[in-house]
Amino acid sequence: MDFDIIQTAPEHKSGIAYTPRDGFDELRATFEEFKSANDERLGALERKRGDVLLEEKVDRINAALDLQTKRMDELALRQARPALEGRGKLVSDAAAREHKSAFDAYVRSGEATALRALETKAMSAGSNADGGYLVPTELEHEIGRRLAAISPIRALASVREISGGVYKKPFMTAGPATGWVGETDSRTQTTSPTLDALSFPAMELYAMPAATATLLDDAAVNIDEWIASEVELVFAVQEGAAFVNGDGSNKPKGFLQYTTVANGSWSWGNLGYVASGAAGAFAASNPSDALVDLIYALKAGYRQNGVFVMNRKTQALIRKFKDTGGAYLWQPPAQAGGRASLMTFPLVEAEDMPDVGANSLSIAFGDFRRGYLIVDRLGVRVLRDPYSAKPYVLFYTTKRVGGGVQDFDAIKLMKFAAS
């Protein structure tokens, strides 16, 4: 197989569109080549006859696998984007149709009278001191769906819509006393549970796409679709970084920013970690043992929904690992549009996870739906600005989002350290 061709393959071949099935077939074939080359490399190392050319070949195939995986992700994302309603389709709800028409007039021409009247009548909970107007509900939901498709942590976590600025989630720090009694035995009064609350404030996230007068005058252009496509990547990139590494100041708090402790000393409010066995690397012998320890650091109730999260470089490193039977721990997707797996658990790439280094927390494993909570305040707002960048019209688009760990027992980390 010619790997230079793989790395520069066009999106279309002979006029036929490149499909997820094509990518899936290529990925499986390349992985077979990778296994063969890596087995040869390992055999040479066992014979103490390292081959530099063989090492380079394995690295080149590994890079080709990364490229093909990225291409498949992009194709899956493209197909996962549901189109907004066509301009000729009738909206069944009269109020929604009226809002959509008024919003379209505001975006295209700056005419805000109808939109202002609608929002005054609705007394919207999504008011914003910076001004602007709420987008139609179907556009807000479309932006949410696109973010879930492209933002790795949002796709895994629990998401809750709120109408206020802060969501408070109560939890028990000490449960009520319980015990076993006989059918006719007396029951002593039990102690009451002790409750506390986690707070998740919603912070403002913004994007500012620009449009030309020609685009706004073109009646064939679906303005809702244009706004959704313009803001999705900006929002997703900023969210993805915050959900992993955000410090909680004017942004969500990322799960890597909580206090971490060795899993044997875990307590509520901290995230437990398992050591890799070597400083800034896996242990030289049986490196995959640390992955097994990480999996079983999670309780069974969480483990059944466990997912690995790491960046692409870390995944390329782990792709070379094999079990005692000689089978590779990393496996490509079982079907087109699926996820790669590691030791039978799904593997999700999050490029904001740190590279492997001294004391880095480069791998997370857990039930993120129970472990991490994202809060979205209702309402995406748009403020039209035709003055700041003439002749372009800017659209200051904001949404409010927060996030943080809600169950500290549901996520475990791997720390690249000796202990």
Describe the strand arrangement of the main beta sheet, using strand numbers: 9-10-21-17-13-16-15-14
Number of helices: 13
Q: Kindly estimate the percentage of residues that lie in beta strands according to DSSP.
A: 15-25%
Q: Count the E strands.
A: 21
> Which sheet architecture does the biggest sheet show?
8 strands, mixed
CATH fold node name of the largest domain:
Major capsid protein gp5 fold
| DSSP helix fraction | 25-40%
CATH level 1 name of the largest domain: Alpha Beta
Q: Report low-confidence residues grouped into runs of 5 or more.
A: 1-15, 82-92
Morphology call: flat
What's the overall average pLDDT, rounded? 83
Number of domains: 2
What is the distance, rounded to the nearest whole angstrom, between the alpha carbons of the first and last residues? Answer: 42 Å
Could you give a short description of this structure?
Helix content is 37%, strand content 23%.
Fold and architecture overview:
The protein has 419 residues and is α+β, with helices and mostly antiparallel strands. The chain folds into 2 domains: 64 residues; 249 residues, Major capsid protein gp5 fold. The protein is 37% helix and 23% strand. The strands form 5 sheets. It has an 8-stranded mixed beta sheet. Strands 3, 4, 7, 8, 18, 19 and 20 form a 7-stranded mixed beta sheet that branches. A hairpin with a 2-residue loop joins strand 15 and strand 16. Helix 2 packs antiparallel against helix 3 and helix 4 packs across helix 5. The radius of gyration is 26 Å and the shape is flat. The N terminus is likely disordered.
